[in-house]
Write a structure and sequence with these properties.
Elements: H1 2-9, E1 18-22, H2 27-40, E2 46-50, H3 66-71, E3 74-77, E4 82-84, H4 86-95, H5 110-128, H6 134-144, H7 163-169
Parallel strand pairs: 1-2
Antiparallel strand pairs: 1-3, 3-4
């Protein structure tokens, strides 16, 4: 019984093979994540990390800060390697055993075209999904998390306080 108790207390090794950093406020991103979760089927091969969560920590996610993660999709492999763009999908799908879906994106002519289309998508995804600009999202996040809202004048009736900053800090 001592062995069972010892193994229960032993630290667990990382079970996931790749950590997908996704925007939980993006409806299309959530559809993809839900599909991938079903494909993972509880195996824990993919760790899903919502970058939009207030407790998102770059230190726990390959050093990828929120603004960078919002610009392009990123993932962190179990060895700490950070990958981005279409390569994220290629590797996540490979880990799940459905790599054949993205296999054509490795072809010499199709691969660069898919990468280019993804770049367009990444640049326009916020607008396409009806969301504010990245600059606005960053300012709102900063305000919501209390960065910049520690000024006691913010939220007061002081004329020196810009009303838009005061409104963001009330979120």
């Amino acid at each position: 019984m001592t062995t069972a108790a010892s193994s229960a207390q032993a630290p667990r090794a990382i079970a996931w093979r790749i950590k997908l950093l996704y925007d939980g406020d993006c409806p299309l991103c959530l559809r993809e994540v839900n599909f991938l979760r079903k494909q993972d089927n509880g195996r824990g091969l993919i760790a899903f990390t919502d970058i939009a969560a207030d407790d998102y920590s770059p230190e726990d996610n390959g050093g990828v800060d929120f603004a960078t993660a919002m610009g392009r999709i990123h993932a962190v492999k179990a060895d700490g390697t950070v990958i981005q763009n279409v390569d994220v999908f290629r590797q996540v799908y490979d880990v799940l055993g459905i790599g054949w879906i993205y296999a054509p994106t490795r072809w010499p002519l199709l691969g660069p075209l898919v990468d280019w289309v993804y770049g367009l998508w990444a640049n326009w995804r916020l607008a396409v999904t009806g969301r504010p600009s990245l600059k606005t999202i960053l300012a709102e996040r900063e305000a919501r998390l209390g960065k910049g809202c520690g000024n006691p004048a913010i939220g007061s009736d002081s004329e020196a306080v810009d009303e838009s900053v005061a409104n963001r800090c009330r979120i």
